[in-house]
Specification:
Helices cover 44% and strands 11% of the residues. It is an alpha+beta fold. A hairpin with a 3-residue loop joins strand 6 and strand 7. Helix 13 crosses helix 17. The relative contact order is 0.09.
Length: 441
């Protein structure tokens, strides 16, 4: 009833008399309580036969992973599905990537969402298509392609079944005021933009990233797609307005999801901070602190290696030199982060650091280029020159893992000692946020 944005995406209200489900922030007149049913996710509301509201647009709500940090297998499965794993492969292949059987994967989805993984995937595709129809001027054929559908007929049938409207009918409700590709990505307040801005600014790589008082942008590579984005913070509306350029629309859904991860827009900071307050009494918390992600796990690994045992400024200089020398130009001013192949093929003589660390970086790039499972960070430890700190830092920023404890970090050690050596194990599964709080303390 309060339309409190802190609960946006945490649950959805479905009205039995109209057959419509809404976000808690919906501006419509609230229905009577006896006409309302509650659902933990949009997928569950849709599976129960309700269609999404055209005013509050449930497709724009931030994610609501109450299990995030606890059920890491499900979390990774959802990330891979959102990246197109079930559009490009089978459920069995997805299970193999996760190290579980397809039967167990189906059980996970039934337990959490009450639907099969494929049903979840199709509904997520339709929700993303709905967002594009509302917020952009993309032709419907392009919307279908960008949402992962291989044919317009299949898209129309699936969309009408799950949304209750044809795509062309929904397009009448759209009112984009721009011709470029601009999407609105919501989050739950609070969000400490000043701290996120400060963190990114100290590590900014010119040509690859850009930053202003209220925006952050960078280049990216996603599969075979390349592009760049600029995310402008609009605190009054609890969202980022993202202007995006991409050369392959089929990668758009994965790219948008990764932007959400990079800015940590789906975090429930209120619940996380309540947990940290109980786990580490006496630690003053920065409200709304977000995990500042990197675009890719490989990039995070490279930056972790280059940052071993040197100052933050020196590490930034090395990364800048690497991007300047090996980054692929996107246009006259912009460069993408170097690929594993380009680093592996270079002698890296332009990097002013000890030869052993250059060898480690080249060895890491060769392994990443040739590995079938490069995202399995446990295998990195077999590479000479890579230890637990490097792996943990890469996981914290490269995949935004919520429960990374950098016990070897000097700042973390010092700050924890000042808190009478509080037990960080009590902060699980949010130790990444505890690490970040200590850095900011």
């Amino acid at each position: 009833m309060a339309r409190d944005a802190r609960f946006d995406g945490q649950f959805f209200t479905a009205v039995k008399t109209t057959g419509i489900y809404c976000r808690p922030v919906c501006p419509a007149t609230p229905p009577q309580e006896h006409n309302v049913a509650y659902f933990a996710s949009a997928v569950e509301a849709a599976e129960a036969g309700y269609r999404p509201c055209l005013r509050c647009r449930p497709d724009s709500a931030p994610g609501s992973p109450a299990w995030k940090g606890v059920d890491t297998t499900l979390e990774r499965a959802l990330r891979l599905i959102d990246e197109g794993a079930l559009q490009e492969g089978t459920l069995n292949q997805l299970g193999e990537r996760l190290g579980i059987s397809d039967r167990y994967l189906r059980q996970l989805f039934q337990k959490r969402f009450g639907v099969a993984p494929k049903t979840y995937s199709l509904y997520r595709q339709c929700l993303f298509a709905k967002q594009l129809l509302h917020q952009t001027r993309l032709p419907i054929t392009d919307v279908a392609y960008a949402s992962g559908f291989q044919s317009l007929r299949r898209f129309n049938d699936c969309f009408k079944t799950r949304m209750g409207l044809n795509p062309s009918q929904l397009r009448r409700y759209a009112s984009p005021d721009h011709d470029e590709l601009v999407l609105t990505l919501a989050y739950r307040p609070p969000l400490a933009w000043d701290r996120l801005h400060h963190f990114l600014n100290r590590r900014l790589i010119e040509g690859q990233e850009w930053l202003g008082d209220d925006f952050y942008g960078r280049t990216f590579v996603w599969g075979q797609a390349k592009g760049h984005f600029t995310a402008t913070h609009e605190p009054r509306h609890h969202c980022f307005r993202v202007a995006l350029t991409i050369d392959d629309l089929s990668a758009l859904q994965g790219v948008v999801g990764n932007i959400r991860r990079l800015l940590d827009l789906d975090a429930d900071t209120r619940a996380i901070e309540e947990h940290l307050n109980a786990a580490v009494p006496g630690l003053p918390l920065v409200a709304g602190l977000r995990l500042p992600g990197m675009w890719a796990l490989f990039e995070a690994g490279v930056r972790a290696i280059l940052g071993q045992q040197i100052s933050e400024l020196a590490a930034r200089r090395l990364v800048q030199n690497l991007v300047d020398a090996l980054g692929e130009p996107l246009d006259d001013q912009k460069r993408c982060f170097p690929t594993p192949a380009s680093i592996a093929a270079s002698d890296l003589a332009f990097l002013k650091m000890i030869a052993a660390r250059r060898d480690t970086l080249r060895r890491y790039a060769e392994w990443y280029r040739d590995s079938e499972t490069p995202e399995d960070t446990t295998q990195w430890l077999a590479l000479k020159g890579i230890g637990p700190w490097t792996v943990d830092y890469a996981r914290l920023r490269g995949i935004s893992h919520p429960d990374i404890w950098l016990s070897g970090d000097l700042v973390v050690k010092k700050k924890l000692h000042a808190l009478d050596d509080a037990d960080p194990r009590q902060a699980a599964p949010w130790r990444s946020y505890l690490t970040l709080q200590l850095w900011n303390h």
